[in-house]
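Page 37, continued from 36.
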């Protein structure tokens, strides 16, 4: 490899390295983007599962809490007068009043253990635990004594759990927090806020606040029941009253108005540090303050809520939320809106990419195309460099081949012109040398020009139907003389009949045979048997014309490139060093241009020499016969 070739290969290697590095960087960036996209998709799927799970749990519990929120405050009494104003339900019961049993006497809800209320003095009572005459009435009508005793045990347990002053302060604080929650958002904003999974406590209470406001409106309508009844009584007695203008809350101006607050969920602990969940609300009537609420069976409620989402989150769990939890992103707790609890056991964030994705397939195709392009570029560069080297060798060989006969011509012609060779015998010898060298020079020039015409597409043959015998007899004298000039013998074997014809160009066949015999003379000149055999045979629609010598033959490695242009065979013969490497390439091109072919035959084992077979077509192929 010369210096110019090494320079070209260095530039090619540098360019290939830059292309591969750039493609590797692009591949890494694309794969990172793909992994980020898959992670975002997986997170979106997980968030969708979380939203659906939270919606299921909250939607299961919200109607039940809404029912409790809409429950009138006087239903926390075991019995209450049937015909009494809304605001006077807590006044002493008059003798002979018609009593109505509270629906809570026989109320049963799997997750609600007991309803209870705390009066202003801190005493606990429950509508499910009637006292004095109301207990006798309940046992004789709707409840058994065993049921009442069981509820009383639960009530005593609640009394031991609750610190009235502390719990009242917590309820007031939570009411104020709920009052600060922005609940007057537009419906689309409310929907978006409810769907956000965040640790912000106020956001987790939005759905609860909406429920409380709806029920509060219903309760406000009930508050006007007593004033309406009183106005009817005034009308019956003919008394006058002032009508308040629109927008004025009549109940707010009355000292006996009933204010029912929203339910607030709170966690309380017993002596064993086990958390109990209670829902409490404030009832304010003038200066009287009461707490009403119910104890939740948290294990049962927890199991029920988890069962609701078992198909979405098989490993889901609920843990109490003891404070307003904060945080953002993946570290934020997932809070329920209706229960102060956090969701655990989230579905795993599966972002692994399995299989051949479109992105990876595209990258593989790009890598394949780039590698094939680099390989093709390297192959083309190698072929170009080799071709250039061969052409350079060819130019050197042509120069050498031309210099030898031209030098001989100049020397001999000057000697003959100056009468420096007086002897007739020597003069005849010099003239014969000049004739031989002129023939050699003519063949060389004609081969070069013929190959140039073939490469440029200007070589035109004229195949004609001719008898094989006539074709060989025409070329035989020149071939015998050519072999004799090299001290060899030409032997012709033609078993074909005189009527066997082929469709060929006479000049092309003559040139092919001349080149083949010339090669045999050069490469087999040192052989023990100095005979060149030319034989004919018929093979299907072709006539095979074989030219064989008994020289060293063609090496296996040289046989693969024997018919390539600018390639010359190797031989120990000095004469074999001559030539420009175009003979066999030209011969094959001429043979194929006539519709035939030229190939190297394989000799049987033990036989020496080289055998070339020229295949000639019997019928014309795409040409008119003459």
């Amino acid at each position: 490899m010369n210096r110019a070739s090494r320079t070209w290969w260095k530039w090619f290697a540098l360019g290939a390295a830059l292309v591969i590095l750039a493609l590797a960087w692009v591949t890494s960036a694309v794969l990172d983007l793909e992994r980020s996209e898959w992670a975002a998709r997986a997170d979106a799927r997980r968030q969708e599962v979380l939203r659906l799970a939270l919606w299921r749990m909250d939607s299961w519990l919200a109607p039940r809490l809404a029912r409790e929120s809409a429950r009138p405050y006087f239903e926390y009494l075991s019995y209450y007068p049937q015909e009494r104003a809304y605001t006077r339900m807590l006044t002493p019961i008059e003798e002979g009043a018609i009593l109505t049993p509270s629906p809570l006497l026989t109320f049963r809800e799997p997750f609600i253990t007991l309803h209870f209320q705390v009066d202003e003095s801190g005493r606990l009572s429950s509508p499910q635990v009637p006292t004095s005459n109301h207990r006798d009435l309940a046992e004789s009508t709707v409840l058994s004594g065993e049921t009442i005793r069981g509820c009383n045990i639960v009530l005593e347990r609640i009394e031991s759990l609750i610190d009235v002053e502390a719990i009242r302060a917590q309820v007031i604080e939570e009411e104020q927090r709920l009052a600060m929650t922005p609940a007057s958002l537009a419906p689309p904003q409310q929907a978006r806020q409810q769907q956000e999974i965040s640790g912000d406590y106020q956001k987790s209470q939005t759905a609860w606040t909406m429920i409380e406001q709806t029920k509060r409106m219903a309760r406000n309508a009930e508050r006007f029941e007593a004033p309406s009844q009183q106005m009817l009584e005034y009308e019956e007695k003919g008394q006058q009253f002032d009508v308040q203008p629109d927008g004025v809350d009549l109940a707010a101006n009355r000292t006996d108005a009933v204010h029912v607050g929203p339910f607030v969920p709170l966690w309380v602990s017993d002596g064993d540090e086990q958390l109990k969940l209670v829902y409490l609300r404030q009832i304010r009537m003038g200066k009287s303050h009461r707490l009403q609420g119910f104890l939740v069976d948290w294990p049962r409620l927890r199991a029920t809520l988890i069962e609701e989402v078992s198909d979405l989150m098989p490993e889901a769990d609920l843990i109490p939320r003891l404070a307003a939890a904060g945080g953002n992103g993946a570290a934020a707790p997932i809070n329920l809106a209706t229960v102060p609890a956090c969701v655990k056991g989230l579905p795993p964030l599966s972002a692994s990419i399995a299989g051949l994705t479109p992105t990876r397939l595209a990258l593989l195709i790009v890598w394949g195309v780039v590698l094939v392009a680099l390989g093709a570029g390297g192959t083309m560069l190698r072929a170009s460099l080799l071709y250039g080297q061969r052409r350079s060798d060819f130019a050197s060989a042509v120069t050498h081949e031309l210099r030898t006969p031209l030098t001989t011509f100049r020397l001999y012609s000057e000697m003959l012109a100056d009468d420096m060779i007086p002897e007739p015998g020597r003069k005849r010898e010099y003239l014969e040398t000049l004739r031989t060298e002129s023939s050699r020079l003519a063949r060389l020039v004609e081969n070069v020009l013929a190959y140039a015409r073939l490469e440029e597409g200007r070589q035109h043959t004229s195949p004609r139907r001719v008898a094989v015998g006539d074709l060989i007899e025409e070329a035989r004298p020149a071939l015998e003389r050519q072999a004799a000039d090299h001290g060899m013998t030409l032997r012709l074997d033609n078993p074909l009949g005189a009527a066997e014809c082929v469709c060929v160009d006479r000049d092309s066949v003559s040139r092919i045979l001349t080149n083949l015999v010339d090669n045999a003379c050069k490469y087999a000149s040192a052989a023990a048997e100095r005979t060149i055999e030319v034989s004919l045979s018929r093979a299907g629609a072709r006539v095979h014309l074989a030219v064989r010598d008994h020289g060293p033959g063609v090496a296996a490695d040289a046989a693969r490139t024997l018919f390539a242009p600018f390639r010359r065979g190797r031989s120990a013969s000095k004469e074999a060093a001559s030539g420009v490497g175009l003979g066999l390439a030209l011969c094959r091109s001429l043979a194929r241009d006539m519709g035939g072919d030229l190939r190297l035959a394989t000799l049987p084992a033990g036989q020496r020499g080289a055998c070339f077979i020229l295949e000639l077509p019997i019928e014309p192929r795409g040409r008119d016969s003459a």
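The mean pLDDT is 78. Flag for discussion at group meeting. The chain has three domains: 44-344, 388-459, 461-626.
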